[in-house]
Amino acid sequence: MVNTKTTKDKILHLLKKEGSLTVNDFTDRLQITHMAVRKHLTILEKDDLIQSELIKQPMGRPIQSFTLAERAEYFFPKSYEGISIDLLHDVKELYGEDSVQQLFNKREERLTKEHISRMEDKKPSEKMQEMVTIQNEKGYMADLSQVDDYTFEITEYNCPILEVAKEFKIACRCETEMLKKVLGTNDVARTCCRTEGDNHCKFLVKFVPQPASSLVEV
């Protein structure tokens, strides 16, 4: 079987296993020159994937040691969704379907409470911009388009909880309800959904036009 890992991959995997390594360590393990090792380490450090520190020695000059930076964790496999789905199925089996509903309702309440304060004193268009910002902070890759003064469409190109939502459709319903409460309008319709085979999730949001304030003569 051909090893298709790049030198960058090999360096990151070595650090994941060993914790910290020096240039000499990499040279021995990768069987490449000091110059080549330092070239790769410089690029990885510039990309914030590794970090270095000088380790004092009993004799001689300090040695530069390299470790993984926090950002490098994204390169290693994670199975959060798998664990979440398994746990939700366990909760359902132990305590019934209502308990799963309560968990998602609790999540909806928490997110609503977190986001609604960011909507204070905002016009509909400003609320929508802020909502898209919030969704992007959570990894939804959301875009906003405006249909008219009081109608908007949110398109979400990514769903961070897609596998969970496929198993438990209530996740989608709770997200729609959260949008209604945070945006302050009951007219929020999910027009496309990735759990139903669509390429993206889309929401059509309508606000009730506010009457102009009447002038009071004194």
Automatic annotation (TrEMBL):
Q: In the record, what terms sit under GO molecular function?
A: DNA binding; DNA-binding transcription factor activity
Q: Where is the HTH deoR-type domain?
A: 8-52
* Record's keyword terms, sorted: DNA-binding, Transcription, Transcription regulation
User: Which Pfam family name is an example for this entry?
Assistant: HTH_DeoR
Protein name (database record): Transcriptional regulator
Organism, by scientific name, is Niallia alba
